[in-house]
């Protein structure tokens, strides 16, 4: 990325986000009641690409090489509550070929050690709100921390996106692999230690498309999201809204019968 010029990889999720940003650039994609952030598809897509570039820069040359190896899996922890920053980091990790490991913002240190250790995570990312806890985990677990940092409004105000041709070989972009993991979600652990379920890029695309057939979600809809984002239900709703182009309103911090 250079300034407001950004190349978008032609692959699932990004093709959808690119089309939304082109067709409805000023439509609100995310309303975050906790932080007061309202972001359009243009602002969101720019932040994803910007954070993806920054993320890659923090990784060693050895780990960056692993991102290009179809036989390797690079796991990156995601410490954030459901909201704008969570979704940006989720797609930023995907943009560089990494696999997200979502955790609640105030996950216990021993839980984090288990979740990140089981998959040999190479990095921990966090929202601004979870940054202090992220620093503590980073120190105790011996893993580097990357914290969300908003881009200057002047950068994405005039953002222009270009969809890369499928055949183009950009050395800065990780080749798309549909069988590669997108996210590692852990179960609640009701019947024993939590078990990690790995969802591939292709399985989530197919699952989301099937999900949308039943939801009939469209760009004219608003989805009220009041669930934890590290659980499968809350995770699925985020992907469904992103794919359909619906407005995603994170409202757990204010949700009540009166507010509704």
Automatic annotation (TrEMBL):
Pfam families: AMP-binding. The keyword Magnesium does not apply. The chain crosses the membrane at residues 74-94. Residues 18-251 form the AMP-dependent synthetase/ligase domain. The keyword Transmembrane applies. Keywords: Membrane, Transmembrane, Transmembrane helix. Belongs to the ATP-dependent AMP-binding enzyme family. This is AMP-dependent synthetase/ligase domain-containing protein. It comes from Aspergillus keveii. The lineage of its organism: Eukaryota, Fungi, Dikarya, Ascomycota, Pezizomycotina.
